[in-house]
Amino acid sequence: MSKRDDILNATLELINEEGLQSVTFQKIFKRANVGSGTLYNYFKNKDEIIGELFIQSINILESYELPENYESMELIEKFNTVINIFINFMKNYEKEYLFAENFSDYHIIKDRNMISTDEYYGVLKEFHSIIEMGQEKGIFRKMDVALSIQILSGIISTPYKGSNHGKYDFDDNCKNEIRLSCWKALQI
Amino acid sequence: MSKRDDILNATLELINEEGLQSVTFQKIFKRANVGSGTLYNYFKNKDEIIGELFIQSINILESYELPENYESMELIEKFNTVINIFINFMKNYEKEYLFAENFSDYHIIKDRNMISTDEYYGVLKEFHSIIEMGQEKGIFRKMDVALSIQILSGIISTPYKGSNHGKYDFDDNCKNEIRLSCWKALQI
Amino acid sequence: MSKRDDILNATLELINEEGLQSVTFQKIFKRANVGSGTLYNYFKNKDEIIGELFIQSINILESYELPENYESMELIEKFNTVINIFINFMKNYEKEYLFAENFSDYHIIKDRNMISTDEYYGVLKEFHSIIEMGQEKGIFRKMDVALSIQILSGIISTPYKGSNHGKYDFDDNCKNEIRLSCWKALQI
Amino acid sequence: MSKRDDILNATLELINEEGLQSVTFQKIFKRANVGSGTLYNYFKNKDEIIGELFIQSINILESYELPENYESMELIEKFNTVINIFINFMKNYEKEYLFAENFSDYHIIKDRNMISTDEYYGVLKEFHSIIEMGQEKGIFRKMDVALSIQILSGIISTPYKGSNHGKYDFDDNCKNEIRLSCWKALQI
DNA sequence: CATGAATGAGACTTCATTCAT
DNA sequence: AATGAATGAAGTCTCATTCAT
């Protein structure tokens, strides 16, 4: 692994362990096992590390693959497939997912318009066509698609984050209920 | 208003404007119009200001009042009443709500176990009995109540936060859809 | 006791407990049970408290009394009498004695020439005539009287301070040896 | 000379010029010609500088060398040799000597037991065997050796410190008197 | 006189960034 | 490219002092 990747990984680890606001360059050097000056061979400043980390996280979230027979599926099958992909992403790339979610708090960067987090990144975009189709078929209520996506996003990610508090397990049964809730929440 | 409140208000404003990580003491006492030393008459250090702010925010969120005829309402009426209270809180105390939500990122405090960020603060607690009743009556699916509450919380707050990006308005129509989604998401 | 005395006592106590350099006004108020502003009714600033404390300490050390038959004593009796008075002072007014001794470290005041510590204060002055007499009588070596006094002072106070480390007791036997050492150190 | 030494030297100079309590970090790095942050590459905080300085001073005081023919000397020759070494130390390393002497006032460090200010550092230790031998030979009075050493220490250092006030010179004649006083003070 | 909340200068300390090696 | 000692601006915090009550 390159020094550059060492730095990015160290930073992401530290952000998830201690929160963005307490990650200092000193901690990054030490964790990444590089000299302090080395950072500046790869990144202009701290914002650039964070920005690059965000892009990298988004890229991972963007790299999903739909199954071969996806196009021939029924609407509800597509719906559940996409939800499953989303859930798996959250679990497999938890650090990247949470980082991307919380990124909007990092106002320094947001204010400078370096990167916009407004877009539906990753597999969430797939919902767009599914929802439109469902609305056309009279299965889903006619409402703003962006709003619909936010509702689905909330139903999936909020219970996932809540499961960290240990009140319930995010197991197969839980996932079934979430999928069902998603479908029903949009229904006529 | 007391100096102490001036300091807390200034800090909350700054956190919501610039994010927790960029709020410095200099900005706080400039905004609060107090001398730098004054902060230390009221708070031991920065963590204590943030902690007090969290407690204050929670207290506000805890201070809801149910309508007089609440107990005699139908289940769905109770359900919608509580959702409306929650939505109004989010809008009226947006700063406090967002701060409390994002607070768990502030690991310094979290790690010290100063405060538990229990997810069932405020009016969300009311959902507990409503959901149990709905499950008993065979209206709602039998699932973990904590999970149900997280689902509702996600359906309400995620679209609210998403509306800030300007894709849709968080207007009456939007609220209707959210209430409907909440009810349906739990239904059999 | 007056507020003024409360302040001086509190300060002297704190100096002996924690050392001059760590005594703050906050600690003084608290110990003296007075308001912070009260200090400024009696003292212009911190230096003035320290200076007053020094004067007070010196005054105590100056208030010794010689026995009635002192004038008719033999030289060696006078010598031992004065040494005993000095030793008793050290023990009875340890705080004041140590403060006065260490005062010269407090350069802020020293530099401003507020007070000079050069003079032989207290009972040490009595040695002057005793030494001169001893030299005239051919009992003591002819050497600078100021030097002689310093030698006596060193023989008495250094072992006293050393006894705090617990290597030996500053008991009657010890005092006898000190008196003997003093006499012999000056002898022909 | 390394930056670390620059810092220690600057601090020692400032302590002797202005006293421990008025030495600030600003003065130290201005005097040492280093940046403010540089201090923290070498020392964790101010206490650590003071502590290191004390250790360094003690090390200097420990590094005396006895003359080659010391073992074959008569008792009084040994006695005078050691006194001369002590006196020369006081003069050559006045800063270190005075710092070490006054260090016990710096209660912060003392209280933390970082360092023990044992009074028998450096050449003073040599007196131990000399005094025991003198007592065995019937030349010195039988008294606690620690007490004897304190007496000698007092006879040497108190007049040295007193000479700074300008009442007499600490010249060869003065040194002779001191050596003589030391010898006589212990004699039968 | 007595008070103590308020102050701000200045102390201590951190941290992103530079630069000679 | 890689390093890490050095830096100093900016941060947190302390403390003597003031002033309205």
Task: Give a written overview of the molecule.
Four copies of one chain form a homotetramer. Chain A has helices at residues 3-18, 25-32, 39-42, 46-62, 75-92, 94-102, 107-111, 126-136, 145-163, 172-186. Residues 105-118 of chain A have low confidence and may be disordered. Chain A starts with a helix and ends with a helix. The first copy, chain A, is mainly α and 188 residues long. The first copy, chain A, is elongated. Chain A is built from ten helices and no strands. Chain A has a domain at 65-186. The interface between A and B is large, with 42 and 45 residues. Chain A binds a DNA duplex (21 and 21 nucleotides) through helix 2 and helix 3.
Shape of chain A: elongated
Helix-strand pattern of chain A = HHHHHHHHHH
> Could you tell me how far the N terminus lies from the C terminus of chain A, measured between alpha carbons in angstroms?
51 Å
Strand coverage percent of chain A:
under 5%
What gyration radius of chain A follows from the Cα positions, in whole Å?
Answer: 19 Å
Oligomer: homotetramer
Strand-pairing-aware structural class of chain A: mainly alpha
**How large is the count of helical segments of chain A?**
10
DSSP E strands of chain A, number: 0
Topology, please?
Four copies of one chain form a homotetramer.
Chain A: H1 3-18, H2 25-32, H3 39-42, H4 46-62, H5 75-92, H6 94-102, H7 107-111, H8 126-136, H9 145-163, H10 172-186
Chain A binds a DNA duplex (21 and 21 nucleotides) through α2 and α3.
